[in-house]
Amino acid sequence: MEPIRKDKPGLGLFLLMSLVYFGSYFGLKYGVFGGNMPWYYNVVLIVVCLGLALGLRGRFG
Fold first, then answer.
1. Which of 3, 43, 44, 53 has the fewest other C-beta atoms within 10 Å?
2. Would the pTM of this model clear 0.70, i.e. be above it?
3. Which ranges does the record mark as transmembrane (predicted)?
4. Measured between alpha carbons, how far is 14 from 61 in angstroms, rounded to an integer?
């Protein structure tokens, strides 16, 4: 069994960023765009969430 790596994000950060992503995605798709969100908005949203996860890795991970 491999020891736990300290540089990997923790479960709490994963759950937090999953909630942020899915909340933002569905809020934009159905709240703002009425179900027709352009595909590149999803790409930008993924990049922003990954950037936030990397930035918050030391605080919540």
1. 3
2. no
3. 12-33, 39-56
4. 8
Q: Which residue has the tokens 């909340």?
A: 23
Measure the CA–CA gap between 46 and 22, rounded to whole angstroms: 10
Q: Which residues contact 12 (CB under 8 A, 6 or more apart)?
A: 60, 61
Ramachandran sector of residue 34 (left: φ over 0; alpha: ψ -120 to 50; beta: rest): left
- Amino acid at residue number 60: F
Instruction: Express each pLDDT in 4-53 by its tens digit.
Output: 666 666 777 778 888 888 998 999 889 988 888 888 999 998 898 888 87
